[in-house]
Amino acid sequence: MVNYQIENRIATITLDRAEKRNALNGELVDQLKEAFQNAFDDDAVKVILLQANGKVFSAGADLAYLQQLQANSYEENLADSNSLRELFEMIYYGSKPVIAKVQGHAIAGGCGLANVCDVTFVSSEAKMGYTEVKIGFIPAIVMTFLVRKIGESKAKELLLSGRLIPAQKIVEIGMAHHVFEPNDQNNSVLAYCQSLVENCSSHSLAITKKMINTIQDMNMKDALLYAAEQNAKARSSDDCKKGISAFLNKEKPTW
Hints:
This protein is an alpha/beta fold. It has helices spanning 26-41, 63-69, 74-93, 109-115, 140-150, 152-161, 167-172, 185-199, 202-215, 220-235, 238-248, and strands at 2-7, 10-15, 47-52, 98-102, 106-107, 119-123, 127-129, 164-166, 178-180. The strands form two sheets. It has a six-stranded mixed sheet, with helices on both faces. Strands 5-7-8 form a three-stranded mixed sheet. The longest helix has 20 residues, at 74-93.
């Protein structure tokens, strides 16, 4: 259900369940967790690209799978829910930048999967949204990340209405960062990933991502103290020494 490949220090993880509109079930979530863990653990990988085959990025939870889960005990359903939570946490807190390429509609859990990535590119033809309330379900795990990403007010309107929104609106409210035309998707997204590989320090990327996630749980005073500590530590890092030396010598550092 998942394809995995590495090229030019970019690990590409591809949802490959197009016949089911890349709907999420337990097996697919497990395979995604394994792929992401491999990418985070591999020193040859600097950037992770998440994409999908087919016309739909992901239709969210597999409804047949959800119907099957209704016969489970609370404990069994909690274990299944925690597996999805672990996947989202892995992407959100992982030490490497994760870029999502949303080539088609991303709905409910599929929308959450795209939103939990660090930078999201969305096709001009795609729509995104959380439709759980329309089938008597709730957008539980995904809302935790969405509120952080776009704020309480925008998240409420989106989650309570269950509506799908078009690409330009997706970018306007902060759910995605860039819109690409379908015939230009590979060039746009791969160029962005390659720019991170060539121009950015792996150490700096990891610390910056960690800090962005950490300071949101702190009050301003504690966040500034933490930031000052990280600033001081960064000055003595090998990458900082290398970068400053290259700048002073008018050279381009090799990252």
